[in-house]
Amino acid sequence: MQFDYIRDPDAIYAESFRRIRAETALGGLEPSLEAVTVRLVHACGMPEIVADVVASPDAAGRARDALDGGAAILCDARMVAEGIIRRRLPADNAVICTLNDDGVAGHARSIGNTRSAAAVDFWRDRMAGAVAAIGNAPTALFRLLELIADGAPEPAAILGFPVGFVGAAESKDALIKHAGEIPFITLRGRLGGSAMAAAAVNAIAGDLP
Description:
This protein has nine helices and six strands, in the order ααβαβαβααβαβαβα. By secondary structure, the protein is of the alpha/beta class.
């Protein structure tokens, strides 16, 4: 038995993005954010998310400038880090996830928070000018905002896509309200995930006009 489906990978790729552009209301988005949004839709299969994409002005362009300058990419989860296409990165950028570093579990217990939040504390020495990509834990995004509010070095951009039923929507609302001058891209509500955070990085690294 054989099913009738497209087998050529280039054809699949081209048709996927043709359908995304045909079915997604991209009008009104600045070109760089449009490129990111197309990748986000591709990652989740839901054109309707465009209504919930929120970004500061030229956030994608400013994140790309940071990557061009060699900025590290700080990831809250291994799945985010593994989803980043290394050959797209413009400056052989370091991709860093501290979740499994020695001492993180103990630090989580000492601060009474999740390992994901504790791992963000291990970013402190590398935060200045980095691109933070959060695609899993709301507590990681909350913790990043807390550190910044307490005077930690500011990242060049925050890509905030935590997912779930507890804290995800709230953490992204906090990002929108408290990012200040830090460029950010996020998606209101519960939707998000590692694939979407990685997709945002991949778009910024390789798709911007």
